[in-house]
Every structure is written in C-alpha cells, then in structure tokens.
Amino acid sequence: MYSSLWRLRASERPPSSGRSCLPGAWRDIAVWQPGVYSNVSEHYEDRVQTHDNGSITLLDVRLADSGVYVLTVSEATGDSKGATVILKVTEVLYEDLQYLAVFVTVLGGIAGFLMVSMWFLDKVYRRVKAWRQKEKTARTG
C-alpha cells in the first residue's frame, strides 16, 4: 500500500490557446490514495479508473480532453513530486473514409447489376421481336 496522496488536475485552457495556465485555471479530476480511497470529479466519474498501484486510466477519450494535465504525488512527510502531460486527441478520419469506400462499392455493384440486367433484357426483347417478325412473315407469306 502507498501512503502518498495522488492528485490529477487539468488545465481549463487548451495548450493551443497561446495563453499560460493561471493558478486558478486548473480543475481537479481525481484525488486518490492508492488502495485506500478515490475521489473523482462529476465530469469524469464514469471515465476515470484509479488503480491500487497508483496509476490512473482515462476511458472514452474525447477531443475536449486535449490539454495539459498535472499529476502531483504528495508524501505524508510533506514532500511532493509532479509531472506534466500534454494530451492531444485527434479525430480518426479513416473510419469515415472506410464507410465512404463501402458505400461507393455497394453503389457500383448495384449500378453494374442494373447495367447487366438492362443488357440482358434488351437481348431478350430483340430476340422476341425477331421471333415475332418471323412468325408474322411465315403466316402472311
């Protein structure tokens, strides 16, 4: 078991805003003591997991989660250490392209089927027309 207190905070401003993060511009995400207790903020309670080894997992990461995160570990003796993480979340565009490719392929298949059907029906029409013409000529001639 760990006797240290862990705190994860996030910047209110994204790193791309060009402004420095002011002391009051941080929001607590979680405070926990591994193996003892954890206190996760309302906005993250369904998406944050704390573990007995002190690690933390952020689930269902969103574009809005991009930003600067600071993790502080405070010992009972008063010593503390911190680490800063910059999280950049980007959209995955290839999934949209994959759906587009499947849609175009399906449309191409349907168009090909319709073209072959039209060709086949045209051939049948011409043969029936020729056969009727022969029948008509045979009866009158």
From TrEMBL:
Transmembrane segments: 97-121
Keywords from the named record: Membrane, Transmembrane, Transmembrane helix
SUPFAM superfamilies documented for this protein: Immunoglobulin (SSF48726)
Name listed for the protein in its UniProt record: Uncharacterized protein
Organism: Synaphobranchus kaupii
